[in-house]
Amino acid sequence: MQDDSLVSLDKQHLIHPVTNYHAHEHRGATILKSGQGAYLTDSTGKELLDAFSGLWCVNVGYGQESIVQAAEAQMRTLPYATGYFHFSSEPAIKLAAKLVEITPTSLQHVYFTLGGSDAVDSTIRFIVNYFNSLGKPQKKHFISIERGYHGSSSQSAGLTALPVFHRHFDLPLPNQHRIPCPYAYRNAQDTSPEAIIAESVMALKNKVEELGVDHVAAFFCEPVIGSGGVIVPPKGWLKAMQDCCNALGVLFVVDEVITGFGRTGPMFASLAEDVTPDLMTMAKGLTAGYAPMGAVMMSDAIYQGIADGCGPDAPVGHGYTYSAHPVSATIALEVIRLYEEGGLLANGQAVTCHFEAGLTAMLDHPLVGDARSRGLLGALELVANKNKKTPFDPALKLSERVSTAAYKHGLIFRAFADNILGFAPALCYTKEDFNLLFERLKRTLDDVLEQPEVLSYI
Ligand code: PMP
């Protein structure tokens, strides 16, 4: 039984992220109670297979006891240490060094945040400071990709190029610009990797020229566009974007908040693509959702530029109370140990074939028009007509129908508003978990297809 008093209190007082408030008052919350491995249990006792790792973050699965023990020990020893006044803590130092070891060689310095949005916001602040320090104050324009997601804080939400994050928020800012998304299924005339890469490179060059090379500070991108619908650019795309940035003198920032920590196979997508970003953001898989934490990493050149620019006495005026929190840092160290020594990175890579095969097999379903993935990050796109790729009428509220049916069948994934279903299973998944995922998914889509309103649309 769901606890009605909790549902009622939730409606009265708890504001939910990226939610229609009135719809929530009407619908009420689904309260989650516990988790183990890839499975969650809600407050009615219903067991659910989580195919989205919470919010693409619980990469190690739920109930990892060694993380709990490490966090408990750190809380007993030292629950908090500030980084102000030259203080530091052992876990924070070890984590910074570890991140330098496992990320591209270009990244030498780490600033810790509480999550991804403030990692992107901090990155923007560091870049602004850097160009002011260099005596290039006109370099203040930022470019991102349509459908890209970089957070929902005041500045990061402007780089996020999804209308719902701008509407009524007076965004994007005048110095935030976008280029088209390398969306093979929808945008491309020629879907060959070469054509898609060439189109993005040309769009970036044109945008930089339009704004003036001396005015563009940085280009931000995700290796796989996540919240914009799991759009997977071809291999070689990321490298081509870096080469283009380097040639134009524009900083290249890779946002690995979703793609980091084994999500696409390697520890970071940038490693597989052989790119050396000027700055990188990360969060989610860093602590696998066991505590809030994110990070910005930067090259030595940027660090030195900022350090020199502030002069001998003044501090760099950027800091959070909870930056480099020792409990979060301890958790991150244990999570990274589980990826490496605990074998989770290797397991994720080994089971990816079952994920890919399952997604591809779903193309036989009448509702599925596209299946795409990289590593354990994937999507299905639902269409009313496969040949014409006709999207469903938004009035049909297909994503809600799919989520409701999936829940009934004991499956959680993300149904985006535009008919895209996103999947991000944990790295601890087994072959049997994947069998169950696709069995439940097929039943879900069959249920939706049988609904008269949906049938009549096809
Ligand atoms: N960047 C990317 C690529 C993300 O996917 C997200 C979150 N989905 C963020 C930034 C923002 O992270 P957070 O929600 O932790 O603030």
Question: Could you walk me through the main structural features you see in this protein, from its secondary elements to its overall organization?
Answer:
With 458 residues, the protein is of the alpha/beta class. The chain has a domain at 66-340: Aspartate Aminotransferase, domain 2. Helices cover 40% and strands 15% of the residues. It has 16 helices and 15 strands. The chain has helices at residues 4-13, 21-27, 53-56, 65-77, 90-102, 116-133, 156-159, 193-211, 237-248, 269-272, 300-309, 326-340, 344-361, 398-408, 431-450, 452-457; strands at residues 32-36, 39-42, 47-50, 109-113, 141-145, 176-179, 216-221, 251-255, 279-282, 294-298, 368-374, 377-382, 411-412, 414-415, 420-423. The strands form three sheets. The protein has a seven-stranded mixed beta sheet, with helices on both faces. The protein has a four-stranded mixed beta sheet with strand order 1-2-3-13. The chain has a four-stranded antiparallel beta sheet with strand order 11-12-15-14. α7 (156-159) links the parallel β5 and β6. α4 packs antiparallel against α12 (326-340), α8 packs parallel to α9 (237-248) and α13 packs parallel to α15 (431-450). The two termini are 37 Å apart. The model has no long low-confidence stretch (mean pLDDT 97). Bound molecules: 4'-deoxy-4'-aminopyridoxal-5'-phosphate. 4'-deoxy-4'-aminopyridoxal-5'-phosphate is lined by residues 115-117, 120, 149-151, 222, 226-227, 255, 257-258, 283, 294.
